Predict the structure.
Amino acid sequence: MVTPKRIKVHNFVTIKDVDLRLDRGTYFITGENRDEIEQESNGAGKSLLCETIPWVLFEDLLRKGMLRDDIIGKHDEYTQVTIWFDVDGETFIVDRVRNHPDRGNDVKVYADEISDDNDMSKHKKSDTTKFICNKLGINPKIMYYCAYAGKKQDPLVGLTSTELNTVVSEILNTQRYDQWISKVRKQGRELETEMNTSMKLLNSKEEQVEEVEDDCDMLTEDLGTFQERLDSQIEEIEEEIESVESERDEFRELIEGKDKVQDEFDEIEDEVRGIEILNSRLKAAQRNVKSRTKKVQKFKNRMVKLKANIKEAESAYNNLAKNPSGECDYCGNTLQKSADLARRIKVAKKRLDKSQGDKIDLSVNIDNSRNALKVEEDKVDELTEEIEGKRDKLDRYHKLEKKLESYKRAEKFITKCEAKLEKLTTKLEGIESQTPDAKRKALKKKEARLAELVAERSELRTRVEGCELDIKASEELETALKATKAARFNSFMLSLQDKINENLDILTEGDYHCKLEADKGELGLRFIGGTKDKYLSYHAYSTGEQARISKAASTALNEMMDLGVVIDDEGLNGVDDVGIERLLEFILEKNGDKLFFFVGHQKKVHDYFAGCNNLHIVKEDGDSKITLRKMEAA
C-alpha cells in the first residue's frame, strides 16, 4: 500500500513554503482567498495542494494549457516538492525540482532518508517515471482513476470502451506482456537463425563425413590389394622401360655410319662452295644478259622512231626544195611568195642531217650492245656447262646434308629416351620401395578425422534438435503469454465489475447494477438503475447518479490496487444534501484507513466533517499558507 506521510512544498505556484506531516485518516481541505473576497475559497490553493502529489510523481498538473515552468511561483526562482511515501512499511522519498540553480529540472528518489548514499535514481532522466512507477508500484493511470477524483477529468466509468481498455491495460501494465512477447519472438527468430546456421553446418558436416568415409573405404580397399597393384605397376613400368630401350637401340644402330657420312661431307664441302660461287657468277651473267637484251631492244625501238623522223624530214625538205607546183603540200601557200623560203629550206636540211647523224650513232650503239650481249650469252653457256659437269657432286652434297640432319634428330630422340629411362628407373625404384605402412598411417589419420567429424555432426544434430524444441517452446510461451495477458485483463475486468456492484449495493441498496458488454471486441461498462429500464452508458445518468456510480467505480479500483491515498477534489459538486451525506458515509467507510484528502464547498459537507482534521488554506498577498486544525461546523 502506497501512502504519503509528509509533503514539503517550496514555491509551488502560490504556495510559498509548507511542510505537512500526515497520518492515515481524513483531511478536509478548506480555503480563503483574501486577495479576491468575492471568490471566497476559490483560488486559495486547495487544488494546488492536491496536485503536488501527481506533480512530484509524474510532473503532471492536470491543468490544460499550463506550461511546465508555470508552476514556478513568484517567491523564488525555482520550485521544489518533496513527498515521503510509506510503501508497505518502507519509506521512499521523491524529490522533484524545476529550474533549480544546481539541479536544473530534476527528480531524485531516496530510500529512508535524503542523502547521497540513499539516492536511488542515478539513471537516465528519460527512465525516471518508469523508475518511480516500479519502486512505488504506481503509474499515472492508477493515480488518476484509483486515487484522484476531481471535476477536471472524466471518471473511469465515463470512458469509452476503447479508452477504458487502454487505461486498464496501463493500470495492469500489460505492456510487460507485449515486451515479453516481443522478447520471446526475438528469441524465436534468433533460434531460427541459429537453427538455420546449424543446419547449414550440419549439411556441410554430413558431406565431410561422407567424403572421409569414402576415403577410408578407398584406403581400406587399397590395403587389401596393395601387393597386387604394386606388382602390376612394376610390371607396367618394366615393360615401358624395355620398349624405350628398344627404340633407343634402333636409333643408335641408325647413326652408326654417321662418321663416314660426315667425312665425305667435309671432303666435298669446299668443292660445293666453288659450285656455289659459279652459281652466283651464272646468276650475275644471266642478269647481265637480260639487262643487255633489254638495252638492244631499247635501241631498236629508238631506231624505228628515228627512221620515221628521217623520212618525215626528207619529205619536208623535198617539199621546200624540189616542189614544181610552187604550193606547199602542208599549208597550201605559194612557196615563191614565202619570204623566208631559204630559211625554211635551211632548217629542214639541218633537221634531216641531224636525224641521219643520229641514225649512224644509234647503229653503232646497236652493234656494240649486240656484241656485249653475245659475250654475256657465251659466258652463261660456259658457266652452265661447267656447273652441269659438277651437278652430281652437288646432288651428293645435298643428300649427305639431309642424312646428317636425320642423324641429329635421331641423337635428340636418343637423348629423350635416356631421360625418360632415367625417370622410369627412379619411378620403378620408388614403387619397389613402397610398403603398406604409409597407407595404414593415412587410413589411421582419416579414421581419426572421421571420428572427430562424427562427434561434431552429433553435436550439431543435438543443437538443431535443441533449437527445434526451443522454437516450439518459444511459440508455446508466446501463446501462453498472450493467453495470460488476455486472462489477466478479463479477470481484472470481471473483478472490477463485481467490486463496482458490491459498492453500488452499499450506495444504492441494490437499486443500481453494472455489467461488462463487448463493443467491437472491447469491453465497456454499462449501468442500470433508478428510472432506467435497460443498461446504459454512464453519461445517460444525472449528476447525482453519476457521482454515486463514479465513486463506486473509483473506490472499487482503489481497493483492487491497494492504494493508501484517496483525493476527492470537488468530486461531489451537483449532488444534493441527501446524496452527499450517503456518499460521504460510503467514502469514509471504505477509506477510513487511508490518507483521504477531500475538497468540497457544500454546507452539508462542512457540517459532516466537523471535528475532523482540517487543512485550512489562506491566500493573502499571493501566498497560500496552510494550517492544520480541527474542523469547525459552518
Q: What stands out?
A: The mean pLDDT is 84. The chain is about 60% helix and 15% strand. The two ends are 34 Å apart (CA to CA). Residues 437-508 form the longest helix (72 residues).
